[in-house]
Every structure is written in C-alpha cells, then in structure tokens.
Amino acid sequence: MDRSTYWLRAAWNDFLAFLPDLLWGLAILVVGYFIARLLGGIARPLLHRVGFDRLVDRLGLAVRADRTEQGSRWGASIVFWVTMLIVVMYAADAWRLGAVASGIAAIIAYLPHVLAAAVIFGAALLFGNWVRGRMLETGGASAPGDLSVASQRPLVAGAIRAGILALGAFMALRELQIAEEIVTLAFSLTLGAIALAAALAFGLGSRDVAGRVMRRWYEERLGKRAGLSGGEDDSQIIQP
C-alpha cells in the first residue's frame, strides 16, 4: 500500500511539474493557429493582386472551373500549413519532445530547396509553353510543296517543349538533392534520346524535301552543261 501511494504521488508530482509546459504548448498551438489563419488571409488577396493567379493559369496548372483565384488559394494554404508546421515545432519543444521538434526543424530547413525546385520547374514550364506558342504562331505560311514540313511543326514544337521541361525537371531534382548521380546520368541519357529522336524526325520527315532540292540542283547542273556543249544527246537527257 505504501509503494502504491508513493507511485501515485510521484506520478502526480511529475504531472504537476509538466503542467506548465503542457499549458504553454497548448497556448502556442492556439495562438499559432490564429496567426496562421491571419497570414493565410493576408497572403490570398496579396497573391491575387501581384498576378499569381494569372501565372498559375498560364502555366496550365489551374484545373478547376473557378480557376480565377485558384493560385492565390493554393498560396494561402501553403502559407497556413508552413506556419502551422513552425507552430507545432515550438509546441513539441515546449512539451520536451526533442525528437519530434528536431524532425520538424529538418523539414522546415528543407523547404527552401522545395521552393527553389518549384520555381525552377515553373520557369521551365512557362518558357516551354512560350517557345511552343511562338513556334506555332510565327511559323508562317508554307509553300505548296512543303506540306510535310508544315504538318510536322506542332510535333517539333512539342518535342522542344518536352526537352525544356525535361531539363527543368532534372534541375529541380538536383535542387531537391535526390540521388544526384542517378539524376545526372538519367538526364544525360534523356538528352541523348531526345537529340536522337529529333535527328530521326528531321531526317525522315525532310527526306522528300531534300530529294526535291537535290533533283533540282542536278537538273540545273545538267542544263548548264547542255547549254555550254550544245549537244543534242545531253538535251535529250534533260528533257523529261
């Protein structure tokens, strides 16, 4: 009976010693939640004013019907959850949960790499869409004999956009520090495959055009020879 009483008294004393830390951690959570809500509410109209919604729409990331404010909504959510992550870290530290606080601190320290990777890939996506649009808009009218080239312009524009996106994706993965050697090797292989595919596409798609150019050059050369020699046999060769 004395041992049970001693154990209960020790547990109660430990609880009383931990109670201030418990209340302090709860206060951090409550106050931090309202601060996170406030920052998210400030970030949403601010992002809308600076044109973040238009940027998300131009990147092709807006998938909902009410996409006019989808980007600012995403940004506000990110601000809210990042703030809450910091709040939980301080609450865990107040509750003497050192492992949890250290893990959350490592995640927070990694967030700048995630932000930089998102900016890199977003820039690559924006640039790839711009290049593809410019190639399709300013391609110009094609001659009657160049229909094969005109029909392949969307394919070439899409291939260039895919190459730009692949480059941006590999740069983003390197920024995220995910298996850098494997990413570098995969990037080299992908770049070589894209170059080989582009060479094959240009070669196979332009063989008719190259054949017509060579035939025209050959006929003009034979015509000049026939004009200089004045022979009848050569003129018969030239005539179809």
UniProtKB/TrEMBL annotation:
The keyword Ribonucleoprotein is annotated on this UniProt entry: no
Parts of the chain that traverse the membrane: 22-40, 74-92, 104-127, 155-173, 185-206
The keyword Glycosyltransferase is annotated on this UniProt entry: no
InterPro entries: MSC_TM_helix
Keywords linked to the UniProt accession: Membrane, Transmembrane, Transmembrane helix
Any one Pfam family match given in the protein's UniProt record, by short name: MS_channel_1st_1
Protein name (record): Mechanosensitive ion channel
Organism: Polyangium spumosum
Lineage: Bacteria, Pseudomonadati, Myxococcota, Polyangia, Polyangiales
